[in-house]
Backbone:
């Protein structure tokens, strides 16, 4: 068994789509729009087959996204190398995203950084 996709609601669907395509090499579909309910979504596909569905609908509830909450915490993306982690982390920092941690070697031996990405959601960059 494998995870088919992960989904997340966002306030700004186009900005979220742009973030995952621009920085994380995602490929977006043309999108879906249910005119009866106002629901809209895009599937973003990544080179290894993983997919992320970003969604929006009228009257969503936008709660604070604290780091130590239960449930969804971050999405992790493998960049392929330490240099790529460093380069993408610096690119995101220069583009105004908060670097919450790293790049660093973690206690369990992973090389990673953590970015507060689109709409305050954490994005982990790792080798």
Residues:
């Amino acid at each position: 068994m494998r995870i088919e996709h992960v989904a997340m609601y966002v306030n700004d669907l186009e900005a979220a789509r742009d973030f995952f395509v621009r920085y994380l090499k995602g490929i977006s579909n043309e999108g879906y729009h249910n005119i009866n309910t106002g629901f809209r979504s895009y599937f973003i596909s990544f080179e290894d087959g993983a997919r992320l569905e970003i969604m929006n609908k009228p009257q969503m509830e936008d709660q604070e996204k604290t780091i130590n909450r239960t449930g969804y915490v971050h999405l992790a993306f493998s960049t392929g190398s330490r240099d790529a982690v460093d380069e993408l982390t610096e690119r995101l920092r220069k583009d105004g995203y908060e670097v919450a941690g790293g790049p660093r070697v973690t206690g369990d031996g992973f090389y990673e950084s953590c970015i507060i990405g689109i709409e305050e959601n954490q994005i982990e960059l790792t080798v």
Remarks:
- Strands lie at 6-9, 27-28, 32-33, 40-45, 51-56, 74-78, 98-105, 111-116, 122-126.
